[in-house]
From TrEMBL:
GO terms for biological process: DNA replication; protein refolding. This is Chaperone protein DnaJ. Keywords: Chaperone, DNA replication, Metal-binding, Repeat, Stress response, Zinc, Zinc-finger. InterPro entries: HSP_DnaJ_Cys-rich_dom, HSP_DnaJ_Cys-rich_dom_sf. It holds the Pfam family DnaJ_CXXCXGXG. The lineage of its organism: Bacteria, Pseudomonadati, Pseudomonadota, Gammaproteobacteria, Enterobacterales. It comes from the Bacteria. It comes from Raoultella terrigena (Klebsiella terrigena).
Length: 129
């Protein structure tokens, strides 16, 4: 278990931050798309004082997303397909220009997925009292 970095966690990459803000000023826009970073996971674990002082290895279970049998991970209803987002044209990112500066941000229409789903697959179990 590694120690914290003085309160700065999450693995911020300063080249990414400066690239997002200043990357397009001199035509240095990004040439390739990369997946958006997922949300951080937080896990509370009880430790004894001895475990905290000496260190310990414990097993934890991390929830993972499994592919749905109905939509196969797309979220679309069986028989329908996701459509390319008309706002970002499938890129998942939009560029906002303000004078000399250009900032790239997640598409607000598709939330960075690059696709829109007209009919979502929803499975629900309702119990009768």
């Amino acid at each position: 278990m590694g120690g914290g970095g003085g309160g700065f966690g999450g693995g911020a990459d300063f080249s990414d931050i400066f690239g997002d803000v200043f990357g397009d000023i001199f035509g240095g826009g990004r040439g390739r798309q990369r997946a958006s970073r997922g949300a951080d996971l937080r896990y509370n674990m009880d430790l004894t004082l001895e475990e905290a002082v000496r260190g310990v290895t414990k097993e934890i279970r991390i929830p993972t997303l499994e592919e749905c049998d109905v939509c196969h991970g797309s979220g679309a209803k069986s028989g329908s397909k996701p459509q390319t987002c008309p706002t970002c044209h499938g890129a998942g990112q939009v560029q906002m220009r303000q004078g000399f500066f250009a900032v790239q941000q997640t598409c607000p229409h598709c939330q960075g997925r690059g696709t829109l789903i007209k009919t979502r697959a929803i499975n629900a179990t309702v119990t009768v009292a």
